[in-house]
Records
---
Amino acid sequence: MTARSLSFCCHINRQRTFKEKQIAHSKKHIAILGSTGSIGIQALEVISAHPEYFEVEVLTAGSNADLLIEQSKLFKPNTVVIKDSSQYQKVMDALDPMDIKVYTDGAVGDVVTMDSIDIVLTALVGYSGLLPTINAIKAGKNIALANKETLVVAGQLIMGLAEEKGVNIYPVDSEHSAIFQCLMGEWHNPIEKIVLTASGGPFRGQNREFLKFVTKSEALKHPNWDMGAKITIDSATLMNKGLEVIEATWLFGLRLDQIEVVVHPQSIIHSMVQFADGSIKAQMGLPDMKLPILFAMSYPNRIPTKFPRLDFANCAQLTFEKPDLKTFRNLALAFEASEKGGNMPCVLNAANEVAVSKFLHERIGFLEMSDVVETCLSKIPYIQTPCYQDYVETDKETRIKALEIIN
Amino acid sequence: MTARSLSFCCHINRQRTFKEKQIAHSKKHIAILGSTGSIGIQALEVISAHPEYFEVEVLTAGSNADLLIEQSKLFKPNTVVIKDSSQYQKVMDALDPMDIKVYTDGAVGDVVTMDSIDIVLTALVGYSGLLPTINAIKAGKNIALANKETLVVAGQLIMGLAEEKGVNIYPVDSEHSAIFQCLMGEWHNPIEKIVLTASGGPFRGQNREFLKFVTKSEALKHPNWDMGAKITIDSATLMNKGLEVIEATWLFGLRLDQIEVVVHPQSIIHSMVQFADGSIKAQMGLPDMKLPILFAMSYPNRIPTKFPRLDFANCAQLTFEKPDLKTFRNLALAFEASEKGGNMPCVLNAANEVAVSKFLHERIGFLEMSDVVETCLSKIPYIQTPCYQDYVETDKETRIKALEIIN
């Protein structure tokens, strides 16, 4: 579309009141927390395809020193952090000669506050994303949030801080990115409800008898999305959708009864918003995390890509069904935890992290994961308005309780 | 959603740069051209459900004096026009005592310029919408455009005028309203293509042998939408979709190759936009013209309604297929006319208006409608850059030619 044709567009763009200002394409400086994970790797792919828009400022990794070194040689960040201190010297030896600063362990929480960073992409897995996100928000950095557990655990705290600091949180989860895209130009219009779509995972339509015996490798085969191990298991148990429901309540300021989960096995519609007039907007496309990652970093501008396009004329059909909450109890448990509020979503998350890890180590069966979560929710003391320290205690206590239940 | 929860919404609404200003809910003063037709009647239903937002300023009708009088007693407009001068006295007798000004015939082109009007809803059928729309734009009135023929016939002229006068054109057609809604907050982002969905009409999947013998009453049964006779026949021949393609090129400043037509028999997805990053946005809902009518009058605000909601969990499936251009030749002819440009879309429209009218009078068969259009497109002299008078001449000449062919 040329500038000329844009100027014809219903003439709306001539009305300055309604026009969103296009941000000049100055480079955005990105910090990627968790650069060697699935989201981190895809973010770097996106960045390397659009070097005119992005500059990598910081990379952090857990223990994959080799990949972190490789990435750093390519993207030349200012600073890297390798969490595993046993790998520190190796990374130091490789990158120090290139004038890249190297830190270890506790440094992730500090490097996110660097002046030169515009956006922090938090792609850490689970609870570990919480502290660096808090620090980044305190330092006034906009957040591209791929770590949904941060909002699940401490949504009230995070959103309160973000409001105080005037920081934007751009969702990276494909569902929340879809909602966010549908809300562009409509921030002033009341939301009636949102519809979070769920693929249903690899075991959609199965019963509990079947689920009792599914293996780790069966659970790791997601029909549509290519993701990390933790989130793939969460997708198979529908806990991922439960975490997304809780994330959405915070991100979009919604009541639980404004969120509907619909199973949509094709994963073409990534989620929908229904406004107060009854109109529904959906964001759609082939399942590819690179698109929401890119958009979280380029908002409000869309950067042209060569990602494969959806061909509607050859897209046979889109189907929808209700989720089976009796078979996939994790989703029901997430609704319950969100309803209770306080520290209960934190309990849900910690118990689930332990359970998934034990399932991945083949220590418990598929259905036992929900048992662990349910028991923890009933045993850990309720705190209505937790402070940061309460979350830390709740997380710790829950993990101990979950391990007790399993052993 | 409460004001408080809105303030949490990704914190985006705190960024004044990206925030669309909510228009204060001062009443909008509406002129409805064609108030006794299908769109006009539905517009008045919408207005009567939301008297706090809208005030009826002008109503115009063709010959249905009784309904115009009834509507006027209810909505108390400032001015009415009854085009059929034989009905003038009747309307005058009924409304003059109520202090409502009554005009006839040529007055439609004048009343649209009244100072008190904010938005002109042009719900006239066919070519007759052109002149009043031009006058309204010249008077600086925003247009809620339900008369697609206006843009088909004279898109270049209309959009040029609208740009000159800084006038907004809000589409009422459900497809164009869908595109428009998807573009909110994205006026600055390049469109890769739009996908106009088509129900396929009552004869989807049929062959030409079958179509040869379909009757007027069969063609008037649209599977999803409740509309006027002309547009219902146009939907059965797919000419409606062809006219919409041409309308979309002008409304959204698109090249013809940026517009794809996909048959979607359920009419749930009302149309889609694909942006340059590959992301697709769709607007969806139950087929109900009242929603796009309301939105064209309330933009950029959404007014809460009690329209029936779509239930996704019980929405069995959405399907898509390519349109059959060999059987439904009108769509191919519309693409051809748009490709040629100049006065050819005007020829297409005039020939089609005559053909549909003759089909509705059972003077020609279903397939002959395309024959009339095709012959006119090849016989009427081409004008590359028509002025207003050229459109008038082309329209007149084409109607004569079409009648010649039929008789």
Note: Residues 110 and 135 of chain B are 7 Å apart (CA to CA).
---
Amino acid sequence: MTDKTIAIACDHGGLELKNILKELLAARGLQILDLGTDDNQSVDYPDYGYAVAAAIRDGRAGRGVLCCGTGIGISIAANRYPEIRAALVHDAFTARMSREHNDANVICFGGRTTGPGVALDCLEIFLDTPFGGDRHSRRVGKLSNPA
Amino acid sequence: MTDKTIAIACDHGGLELKNILKELLAARGLQILDLGTDDNQSVDYPDYGYAVAAAIRDGRAGRGVLCCGTGIGISIAANRYPEIRAALVHDAFTARMSREHNDANVICFGGRTTGPGVALDCLEIFLDTPFGGDRHSRRVGKLSNPA
């Protein structure tokens, strides 16, 4: 059941994009676990990256979506946890690679860097592209076991 | 002294770009700690992300540069460590923001996604842009202390 649940969160810089991406998730019949923020008040992006990471680690969601101004800070936060593979993507190619090569379970966007049409395209690809396995499995395994 | 040392590494997908970026570092008189890979043989990007993270954590380098195919996998690896803020950048804006807002100490590129001219531009900005401090200090502090 949690496989069909997507945790989503943002800071103030990613709010508008988060709301657009939620419409796509809802249209696809996915359960949405919205962990904030909910208004334009300035907040700290690590809190929201950590919230989505915790939801996946706890089994409350199968995947996650994160948005901040550039996607950089919020992806750094989520990637603090070995169970999380948070991919900052910018277009169809990077969205596809993030699934095929990195088995990403979180997709990250910058509300100031990626427009809504491109982001929606990326999110569809993120949801639909299977992991490539093979040599990539060994590499993804190493991401779960930092040296 | 280590402040002037830049650790740099890549997988096979980022080798060509790494070699171009090293020329800029050398031209600026920076010490380069090249942690591989050195040829086109297929390798695992996490090993190289972890190597640069270790060099910064050990004090052998002040900052780092990482390149893989998309920059996604190698940045996930480096960000496993709370001391590392590895920013995947794509242009002057994201390079500048990564320093001003995120105090990034590692810059990441995709050899298949970012051309050499743009990457050189980003690297110059990464080296020259100070951290903005203020409210960003609180957020960067949270990146060092995952919940």
Note: Chain A has a mean pLDDT of 96.
